[in-house]
Amino acid sequence: MMHGMHGGKFPFRPFLFCSCVVKYYQPKTAEEGLLLKWLQHLRTVQHHRFLVLRHCWRVGLYRQGLTHDLSKFSPVEFAAGARYYQGNRSPNEIERREKGYSAAWLHHKGRNRHHLEYWIDYAADGSGMCGMKMPLKYVLEMFCDRVAASKTYRGAAYRDSDPYDYYARSVDHYIIHPETAQTLEYLLRVLRDEGEEYAYALARAGAEVVLHRMPDALHGYFSLPSRFPLVRRTYSILCQFLNGEQS
Length: 247
Hints:
Blueprint: H1 13-24, H2 30-58, H3 62-67, H4 75-83, H5 91-99, H6 103-109, E1 120-122, E2 129-131, H7 136-154, H8 162-170, H9 178-194, H10 196-204, H11 229-242
Antiparallel strand pairs: 1-2
Helix pairs in contact: 1-2, 2-4, 2-7, 4-6, 7-9, 8-9, 9-10
């Protein structure tokens, strides 16, 4: 018997009941089918939010874990999510194909700072639209969100390489700040190559990637003697980083 809050009863019984209905009930009418899709969407959203909460709490983002994706319960987002529910991918894709745009996504991305699209703005130099650098706490929530989404949609077929593979397929059309992209990609690569424990240990430590470009540098130049100016410049950057300074 499971005990918890609310007089010793397991607090998530309504959610478990919803899950059982979704899994076993066979609708007999169109109305029942619509209701079932609403319940299926509710279960998917709550499952995803629970996974994000677990991942966020592993890296110390307690408030963000609790409040993640609450806008999905707004009428514009929840109604579209239920109507276009698929179970193995985002319903926003189906709404976008039908309408040419996704009202749910437009609403969602403007209210959730863990999405890179939230940070797209006009460049200060007037060169057009560009990605602003995201605060690290939102980059980490974005990482947790992508891992949880892959687990939700891939189910038992999930592999630690899935979040990186999805990123690699989509990154060409992202409008994202270079340093934000470097940090996110670094965590996704570590997850793919080293596993979840190591990736979350780095995230919990606040691992952030800073991009430095070395024009005209040869591959492996760092192994050259320090009399070369480019090698000395690289040593200087590393020392500044280790000393907590900005280069």
